[in-house]
Design brief:
Elements lengths: L3 E2 L5 H10 L4 H13 L13 H10 E2 L4 E7 L5 E6 L5 E8 L4 E4 L3 E3 L8 H5 L1 E4 L2 H19 L8 E4 L9 H12 L11 E5 L3 H10 L3 E5 L5 H7 L8 H12 L7 E7 L7 H11 L5 E7 L13 H13 L3 E4 L14 H17 L9
Parallel strand pairs: 1-2, 6-9, 9-10, 10-11, 11-12, 12-13, 13-14
Antiparallel strand pairs: 3-4, 4-5, 5-6, 7-8
Helix pairs in contact: 1-2, 5-6, 7-9, 10-11
Bound molecules: iron/sulfur cluster.
C-alpha cells in the first residue's frame, strides 16, 4: 500500500487518519502544527510525539513536497518557482512581496480547460487536477523555504491568491481542504479576507464555496457584454453574465469582504474603449458591491492580442472612477522573469519539455531544492 501523503489532509482529515491509527484526536493537532507551522520534513523532528507514533507514521505516511525545477527571482523581489508534478507536468507559484504584505499566487491545475483567449495557460490545454497536497505544498514550500533563507520563524506569507494555473472551482474537491489548511489556526492561520479564490465564473461552484468555505472571491470578467465575453472567456456560454452576477450577489451574503473583485484584462481595441467602460458601469453600478482590477495583458504570440496602451487604460479607469466604482490598475510584477498574470503557462510548457529532456539525461538534472 502506498504511503498516505499527510499534506493531502485538512485538520479534520488528519484527525480521522490518526483515529484510524488508534491515536487520540489531539495527536492530529500536534502533527498538523509540526507540518504546517514548523515546516517539519521528517517525523523524527516531531519531538513531542511519542516514539511509537513516529515509527508508526514512518511506515504508513509521508510528507510529499514538490520538486523544484527552477526558481527565478526578479529585480523587484518577486520569486517564481516551477514545480515538477510528475508525468511531464509542471506548475508555477509566484511570491510577490510588498511593503505591507507578501502574497503567494498558487496553481490549482496543470493546464486549464477553460481556454480564455488572453491566457497562455488556457492555450496550453488541460493536463490534470492537482491534489490537495500539491496545492498545499506550494504554500509549504514558499513559507518554509523563505523562513529558512531569511533566518526567521515569523510568518512570511500573509495573503494567498488562487490565481496561478488552472480554474480552482473546476478542482473543487481538492481546493476546499487546501483552503481549510490555509485558514486553520493550527495551519497557516490566514484570515478568510486574505485568501482569494479567482474564478472565470463556474456558477454552481461559487454557490458551493459560499456554503463550504467562503473566502474572498475574484471573478475574471474581462467584458461588459455576453457576446464579447463569450469570445474571451468561453465558459460564459454556459454561465452568462447575468447568472454570474446573481451568484456573486448570493456569495456576498457570506463573503468575508463586502465586495467582489472583478478582474478585467485590458486588450487593445477589444474590450478597452470608453464606451465599454460605460457599459461596465451600467452592468455593475448599484447592482453589486464590487471593485475592479484592470490588468495589463501579457502578450504571447498565439493570442493575436495586444496590450492596451497606457492612455487607453487611464481613460477606461477614469470612466469607472468617475462613476464611483473603486478601480485599481494592477502594476506588473516580475516582468523580467515572466511571472506576471497569464504568463505562467507558455514558459512552463517550454521548460517542462526541457525538463523531460533533462530527465532522460539524468546527469544534467539540476533541481534547486
Ligand atoms: S484565465 Fe484562468 S480560467 Fe481562463 S484559461 Fe487562464 S487559467 Fe484558465
Amino acid at each position: 500500500m502506498d504511503a498516505v501523503n499527510l499534506l493531502d489532509y485538512d485538520l479534520e482529515g488528519l484527525t480521522a487518519f490518526c483515529e484510524q491509527l488508534g491515536e487520540k484526536r489531539f495527536r492530529a493537532t500536534q502533527l498538523f502544527r509540526w507540518i504546517h507551522q514548523k515546516g517539519a520534513t521528517d517525523f523524527d523532528q516531531m519531538s513531542d510525539l511519542a516514539k511509537s507514533l513516529r515509527s508508526k507514521l514512518q511506515g504508513v505516511a509521508t510528507l510529499k513536497r514538490l520538486s523544484v525545477i527552477s526558481e527565478h527571482m526578479s529585480s523587484d523581489g518577486t520569486i517564481k518557482w516551477l514545480f515538477d508534478v510528475g508525468g511531464g507536468n509542471a506548475v508555477e507559484s509566484v511570491y510577490i512581496p510588498e511593503d505591507d504584505r507578501a502574497t503567494l499566487c498558487i496553481s490549482s491545475q496543470a493546464g486549464c480547460a477553460v481556454g480564455c483567449r488572453f491566457c497562455s495557460t488556457g492555450h496550453q490545454g488541460f493536463s490534470r487536477n492537482l491534489s490537495t497536497g500539491e496545492i498545499v505544498a506550494q504554500l509549504w514550500h514558499a513559507e518554509h523555504v523563505l523562513r529558512q533563507r531569511l533566518g526567521t520563524s515569523d510568518r512570511i506569507i500573509s495573503n494567498v491568491v488562487m490565481m496561478g494555473m488552472g480554474e480552482p472551482l473546476q478542482n473543487y474537491s481538492a481546493l476546499v481542504p487546501a483552503l481549510k489548511v490555509m485558514l486553520d489556526d493550527h495551519g497557516y492561520g490566514l484570515s478568510r479576507r486574505r485568501v482569494t479564490v479567482s474564478t472565470s465564473g463556474v456558477v454552481p461552484m461559487i454557490d458551493r464555496l459560499r456554503e463550504d468555505c467562503p473566502v474572498a472571491l475574484a471573478v475574471s470578467l474581462h467584458a461588459p457584454t455576453d457576446p464579447l465575453r463569450d469570445q474571451l472567456v468561453p465558459l460564459n456560454k454556459k454561465y452568462p453574465i447575468a447568472e454570474l452576477l446573481a451568484a456573486c450577489n448570493r456569495y456576498l451574503d457570506k463573503a468575508p469582504r463586502d465586495f467582489i473583485t472583478f478582474e478585467y484584462c485590458m486588450l487593445q481595441e477589444v474590450n478597452d474603449a470608453p464606451e465599454q467602460a460605460h457599459e461596465l458601469v451600467r452592468l455593475l453600478k448599484n447592482k453589486i458591491g464590487c471593485k475592479i482590477n484592470l490588468i495589463p495583458f501579457n502578450p504571447f504570440p498565439a493570442s493575436g492580442l495586444i496590450r492596451s496602451t497606457h492612455p487607453r487604460v487611464q481613460a477606461f479607469a477614469e470612466v469607472l472612477i468617475q462613476a464611483g466604482i473603486v478601480t485599481t490598475v494592477r502594476k506588473t510584477r516580475g516582468d523580467d522573469i515572466d511571472a506576471a498574470c497569464g504568463q505562467l503557462a507558455g514558459e512552463v510548457q517550454d521548460r517542462t519539455r526541457a525538463h523531460i529532456r533533462m530527465v532522460r539525461a539524468p546527469v544534467t538534472v539540476a533541481k534547486s531544492a
